[in-house]
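FYI - complex with flavin-adenine dinucleotide, inputs then prediction.
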Amino acid sequence: MDVVVVGAGFAGMYMVHKAREAGLSVHAFEAGSGVGGTWYWNRYPGARCDVESLQYSYEFSEELQQEWNWTERYAGQPEILSYANHVADRFDLRTDITFNTRITTAHFDEDAQVWRVATDGGHDIEARYLVLATGCLSSANTPKIPGLESFAGPTYHTGKWPHEGVDFAGKRVGVIGTGSSGIQAIPHIAAEAGHLTVFQRTANYSVPARNGALDPDEVAKVKANYPEIRATNAMEGSAFKTALPRGEGSVLEVDDAERHADFERRWEHGGFVFLQGFIDTMLSEEANRYAADFARSKIREVVSDPATAEILSPKQLIGCKRLCLDTEYFETYNRPNVDLVDIAANPIAEITPQGVQTDEFYELDVLVLATGFDAMTGSITRIDIRGRDGQTIADAWSAGPKNYLGLGVEGFPNMFTITGPGSPSVLTNMLVSIQQHVDWIARCITDLDADGVTTIEPTNEAQTEWVTHVNSIADVTLYPSCNSWYLGANVPGKTRVFMPLIGYPDYVERCDAVAADGYAGFALTS
Ligand code: FAD
Ligand code: NAP
């Protein structure tokens, strides 16, 4: 076939559709039993998007965006999964997707100039192009805690949640991890469990989502103006425009009253707008502290026990780990059936069949790991991908991912990554980034075919320049200042490199210029 796609989340689904439209033969393989990727796997209670539903959706089909009706400001996982299934039905995608099948190896055959791809289902595929739609947040990070496997009760990772759900009623539940997944799940688990113990290593900032039912008038207004709204999204660094305008001044140039009023207004609105009031929040530590102090003051307002509030108050700068959105997260710690354990102060020594041992012992019936993902590279390096001279992608990226435009890797001809490291990906509304990547890849293959080009691969020079570019932008911001998964810091032993590119519009401009310039920076052979 022309294109083999790994994964059938939103990226793989659209890649199948777009490749077909371009007249290419295409087939996707998906490890799960259905489409939806993130929304297929992350079925934990409380899972929902944090980019507003009306924006977190495909824009490639006007009919699709008109006919689909989101019910909440931030749709829950079941609704997003229904949407993915609706898209698969509407565009008849399943006929070109094989489910329950994991791609295990992909080797580039230099003589035949094809990818030879194998699956755990015994498939043996030959394809001109390999597209990795494997997801940035799709390889669960299971912590290496001594004795974890010995735990006698069930253990669930939020990113691999059982389809039948979990009955927490009356149980003693432990949750390890307080990132976005933990912060969404904890209030729901607390409401059901007999007792909940949360094991927190790093406190996180969280802004109220202020989720609620969508107003039909607002929906109608958005639908009537979708093309304009999508176009304004593309002008934003994060690829989505929020209802409150971005501030254009420095937080250091306003007085306390004005600063406080702006923070308060944004806090009340809910969501990521909180960090958008001033231009320097992610650029200057001094500026950042104002927003961080405000967010910490909100924790103290909500949490009744001052000692608990202190443990829940993050010490790192705000925004350098991904900001969380929540519904009644901090309120949960006022419940009599919830305890917080500071495992930064008292680390987990081991897990035994009965529970978790820190300086105290916590007896548990169920353990939930909200411990995140081997982000951005994990799902790629877990596949035995070999390019020229048998080099593996894991080796090529052992000192951190290197690529050009976040799309191609030197030594791996005719291989594309969707929302790969080095692209804006996880710092954007990902549905926008996914579509931009897929459109670019489809255009690229079409252009190359028209010109009789058989292989495309980044030059060493272009790749080196790109990696330097990605890092130089990150280095003028505060993003690299804490142990985030953006840096790979959550996975022991992973090389620390800031992986995503900051800034969507400049990136798109660069991708378009590269294509218009005959794929400048790529070596092409005919
Ligand atoms: P995924 O959805 O991760 O799909 C990748 C698929 O590839 C998976 O189904 C996986 O099974 C499959 N796969 C991987 N390796 C193989 C293999 N070797 N063989 C076969 N199949 C394979 N982003 C936002 O912009 N806004 C949000 O609100 C938002 N909320 C999120 C909430 C959660 C809980 C998580 C975890 C992420 C969230 N994200 C959000 C990021 C989200 O991952 C993307 O928005 C988007 O869904 C990614 O789509 P994808 O197709 O690129 O990857
Ligand atoms: P995460 O942000 O990486 O959080 C993982 C948590 O587990 C952190 O608190 C981490 O602590 C802790 N942890 C990891 N290893 C540990 C160990 N060995 N011992 C103790 N604690 C450990 O993962 P996530 O919460 O799944 O979120 C990942 C990303 O997915 C988010 O940032 C976001 O992009 C996306 N997401 C979005 C939403 C949404 O609201 N739409 C929901 C879920 C996920 P440390 O901080 O100390 O490492």
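Residues 131 and 498 are 23 Å apart (CA to CA). Residues 6-7, 9-12, 29-32, 37-38, 40, 42, 47, 49-51, 56, 102-103, 133-138, 181, 379, 383, 418-419, 429-430, 434 surround flavin-adenine dinucleotide (ligand 1) (CB under 6 Å).
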